[in-house]
Amino acid sequence: MRRPAESPTVVTLCLIVGVFALQQLAGVVGSERALFALSNPLLDRPWTLVTSVYAHAGPSHLLANAAALALAGLLLERRTTNARFHGFFVTVGALSGVTQVAMAGLVGSFVPGIPAHVSVLGASGAIFGLFGYLLAANRITETVVGGFELDPRVQLALGGVLAAAITLLTANPGVALLAHFTGLLLGFLAGRAHLLRPADGAPATDPARF
Q1: What band does 202 get if pLDDT is binned at 50, 70 and 90?
Q2: Mean pLDDT across the chain, nearest whole number?
Q3: Catalytic site residues?
Q4: Cis peptide before 41 (omega within 30 of 0)
Q5: Is pTM, for the whole model, over 0.70?
Q6: 9: left (phi over 0), alpha (psi -120 to 50) or beta
Q7: In this structure, are residues 92 and 186 in contact, taking their beta carbons and an 8 Å threshold?
Q8: Per the CB 3.0–4.6 Å rule, which of 60, 129, 172, 188 could disulfide with 92?
Q9: Secondary structure of the chain as H, E, C letters
Q10: Percent of the chain having pLDDT more than 70?
Q11: pLDDT value for 141
Q12: Would you place residue 208 in the very low, low, confident or very high pLDDT band (cuts 50, 70, 90)?
């Protein structure tokens, strides 16, 4: 069992709270969105690829994501290293946000009624990635999928269908559905490849395979 200071989940929770505090300070001078939210053009403010993952729209948004992060993170961190956990979290979160913003810009340019310019905040894409990893890399899934010896392309298709179903089931007004879907799918694919499994000789809290 890691001490709180050594837990990547606890560290990530502290980062989220810290960034939210900075958002409140930035909001006083009216620069919150420019500093933290990811939006088009993506390369105009490249730092928002990272800040948008840890920033949140309000207290309820932060609390909901913090609870989900605590649940998934504490389960997953036992089977990986701190560096892999943090790298996975920010990478999946950033890619999920980019997908949401890029697709909105692409589709909104051609479909009336769909906004072409959106901004994204929140860790939900990264958190969905954690749950996707847990879903794909547990022993039950290994037994079922391994027993059928499914082609990788079939596994990808099943992961996409499952990610879409879960995304729709958890949908609410105003949420970034494409970001959630992308996070789940990336997490599922990473779980099937066991990307977070420590390399030989690297320490892990629990040596069980994941």
Answers
A1: low
A2: 82
A3: 124, 180
A4: yes
A5: yes
A6: alpha
A7: yes
A8: 129
A9: CCCHHHCHHHHHHHHHHHHHHHHHHHHHCCCHHHHHCEECCCCCCCCHHHHHHHCCCCHHHHHHHHHHHHHHHHHHHHHCCHHHHHHHHHHHHHHHHHHHHHHHHHHHCCCCCCCCCCEECCCHHHHHHHHHHHHHHCHHHHHHHHHHCCCHHHHHHHHHHHHHHHHHHCCCCCCCHHHHHHHHHHHHHHHHHCCCCCCCCCCCCCCCCC
A10: 76
A11: 62
A12: very low
Taking the CA of residue 9 as centre, how many other CA atoms within 13 Å lie in the half-sphere pointing to its CB? 22
Structure tokens, 85 = 């956990």
Q: How many residues does the chain have?
A: 210
User: Looking at the DSSP assignment, which residues form a beta bridge with residue 98?
Assistant: none
Residue with tokens 């890029």: 102
pLDDT at 5: 75
